[in-house]
Amino acid sequence: MDLNTARETILQMQAKASAYGHVTSLLSFDGQTTAPAKTAANRAHTLAILSEDIYKFATSEEYIEVLDFLQEHRDELSDNERRMVWLLSRRLRFMRSIPMDEYIEHERVLVESGEAWREAKANNDFGHFAPYLEKIFATVKKFAAYVDPDMDPYDFWLNEFEEGLTMEFCEEFFGGIKEKIVPLIRRIAEKPQVDDSCIRGDFSERTQEDFAHYLMDVIGLDKDHVGFATTEHPFTTSLGSHLDERITTHYYRDCVGSSMYSVIHEGGHALYDTGSSDEFVYTELDGGVSMAVHESQSRFYENILGRSKEFISLILPKMKELWPEKFADVTADDLYKAVNKVQPSFVRTEADEVTYALHVLVRYELEKKIFHGEVEIKDLPSEWNKLYKEYLGVDVPNDTRGVLQDVHWSDALIGYFPSYAIGSAYGAQFLAKMKESVDVYSCIEKGDFAPINEWNREHIWKYGSSKTPQEVLKLALDGEPFSIDYYVKYLEDKYTEIYGL
Amino acid sequence: MDLNTARETILQMQAKASAYGHVTSLLSFDGQTTAPAKTAANRAHTLAILSEDIYKFATSEEYIEVLDFLQEHRDELSDNERRMVWLLSRRLRFMRSIPMDEYIEHERVLVESGEAWREAKANNDFGHFAPYLEKIFATVKKFAAYVDPDMDPYDFWLNEFEEGLTMEFCEEFFGGIKEKIVPLIRRIAEKPQVDDSCIRGDFSERTQEDFAHYLMDVIGLDKDHVGFATTEHPFTTSLGSHLDERITTHYYRDCVGSSMYSVIHEGGHALYDTGSSDEFVYTELDGGVSMAVHESQSRFYENILGRSKEFISLILPKMKELWPEKFADVTADDLYKAVNKVQPSFVRTEADEVTYALHVLVRYELEKKIFHGEVEIKDLPSEWNKLYKEYLGVDVPNDTRGVLQDVHWSDALIGYFPSYAIGSAYGAQFLAKMKESVDVYSCIEKGDFAPINEWNREHIWKYGSSKTPQEVLKLALDGEPFSIDYYVKYLEDKYTEIYGL
């Protein structure tokens, strides 16, 4: 093999991996959007057959040989090629470290556990899900040891989902959250609650759909490459490459805020992915680099921009046009307060901007303790409820709205939650940096998102996955280290004004 | 290899083919329904990569070996197994007869020709499309000779799309159409035209969508397994198996009849596919056997049932509910006449029940003549217009609404059109047989489609592709041979009454 052949081969193999990714993501997207109710087994049948092809391809001799060759010649590669090879090798190392029968058994358990979780949640029956959860935690812990026996298994999984993330970082980060945000919530709770009745009422799904398309235009999504669909739990997905991105939403008739902010949130994810440099298409470098950087963008558009006074002034006329009676007498200030109401609750996905990180904190602490034998699965519900009481001051009414609320654990996404909160904090620091060169809020007020999107594209999006999350941060922040202070100050300033603290 | 291993292997291989079929159909379905505008190249990239996998799989040594083995042991197989092996062998024979480079070149030309056809149609520029058409006709003629050098190439392609179909049959069939339908149209033209203003006006897409869902329920589609989407040119597709079927429609604001009857038509296709016996799932025997039998079902629901007086009485109250002002004073008789207006036109897909077969006849005659060197590609537009004048009495205004109107030829679907007309005639004969045991029109009037669907399931649908089209006909008609007379009589009776001939 010579270097140019190896280069060509590895590009072809990534193109093939993109094609496989395209169809598996499309099957999932279809299942979550337009597919008829009882067609999941049919999709599972197809997926099982494709998975075999994909596994064989991803662990093939040819693949291993090319990667080994490129590793040996890494000094002759460009930075982007080295990054590509590193990402591919990391995945290959994972795949080869797990005995195939254990991998397949794990995949099988996950199909069953998803079903068990849905049933358990529907019936408020943690006991039904507990054996699966037991198995999943044990398996992922074992897998971590297979791949990297010298690493703490929770650190292993944090790093799998957010390259470079450690418990050490999380401890400091969540320590700061606890120290600063818990008191902020207490101070807010002492003040009179804001009135959010203007976003509650009866909003037809079709008018909300019109509103969603309007919002996609407002934030500058390229609808030639970003599709839109409805689903149960909103998500964003890339199909094959950043050239075909899909966002989804879910409508609640009784609250216009839910779909509205899910569209802006998912739109932020889509902006990030589709902003990836075109040269990365059909390679590992295409699309956003990590969950935390992704959330830094989605929550930036949703909260920092979308829940700003200026954004509210911008969109209120449209809302008055779509729902003339409902919004006739609503002022920008009314709407601004309504969409920024802070109220500790049980459910993460319904949480406001201030309490959100505490929901994540609960999950982080519990995952860490389970991995280190400090909490047993059977005690999860009571531990969960205890922490919700401690951090959020709420009494969880049942496991359905408590420990069973999230799908993640049933899908072995353990070590994944922290990135949600960390991303929010990244976003606040990006805002401060962006403001040095962009008049952010006056852009929003004018409905001119181009300078904002351009800044993000130039400093974050264009890199795709070609830099590590830490490198992206460093580049975007001109070398300034990450600090939680921006996030805390952003929240303190905003909510001090809203609640008159 | 022993017989049981071969049986098991061939089932696994069909399951794999179903999985490949699932994802390629899903890519196409997605492209035609929800995908953003500029994502076709991204899908083509994925499809090209998968096609290589699929080609290799479909011509693999293992595949050939198993099929050969089963062919040798055909006497030990069940009827269904023999049919399966025959269908698979036919496809394999086709794939192996075409040199791979010519096959790939042909596929490449088809991607380009689709684009060229769209441009040519948009710009009324037949010359732009002609070189592609020249190439496509030459290639399919050559392919026919590769596979079966002793067969007339047009017979070859008729038989490819409709197993058992020959020019001999078509000559007799279309001879009957010319002899009986052309005079019928002339007689209708002498009478005062019916008024179809009640189905024309301004019908919002969303209300039409509600109506579409209502119609799906009326004809008895199982929405747990039949999905619904909107598209440019309505179609139906199975995804992986008959367990996941999708129908599509397109709304025209100015005419409620278009989407309404496309939903019923595509619904007929979906009923047929989903009525396939469950034992055939993930094999070649799953889903409808041929285009003509498919059209016999789709056009049965659309025209014979859907354009009957009884159906109109059944659905008019719903239309009055959805469009109270528009239909306030409309009687069942008004609506019945409106949806059965006969008017020779230029465009096949907009044609009424009576003139439809003549549109197909034009295409049949031209295809046959090109294959036999009696018409040159460059003369197609003038030949087309001449035949439209002769059979339908209309002057085609331009090639966009003339020879360029259909997508089929750009996709090498040559020999495919006749099945559309033949299927309509099958349907009329099925109706006569069905009436022997089912009180068809009183069922429709009551909105009780179950006995009708049950008859079709028992006599047609359940067989899937396990019988040849001719066998299905024979079984459904209790051995009575096909005759065009039922179709002619059905049309003559119906339109004699409507137009007072």
Q: What would you note in describing this structure?
A:
2 copies of one chain form a homodimer. Chain A is mostly helical and 501 residues long. Chain A has 21 helices and 3 strands. Chain A has a 3-stranded mixed sheet with strand order 1-3-2. In chain A, strand 2 and strand 3 (241-249) form a beta hairpin. In chain A, helix 12 (309-322) packs across helix 14 (332-339). The model of chain A has no long low-confidence stretch (mean pLDDT 95). Chain A binds chain B through residues 15-16, 18-19, 22-23, 26-27, 30, 33-39, 41-43, 45-46, 49-50, 53, 206, 223-227, 229, 239-241, 243-244, 246, 282, and chain B through 15-16, 18-19, 22-23, 26-27, 30, 33-39, 41-43, 45-46, 49-50, 53, 206, 223-229, 239-241, 243-246, 282.
Beta-strand residue percentage of chain A: under 5%
Pair with the most extensive interface? Answer: A-B, 38 and 40 residues
Uncertain segments of chain A are none
Shape label of chain A = globular
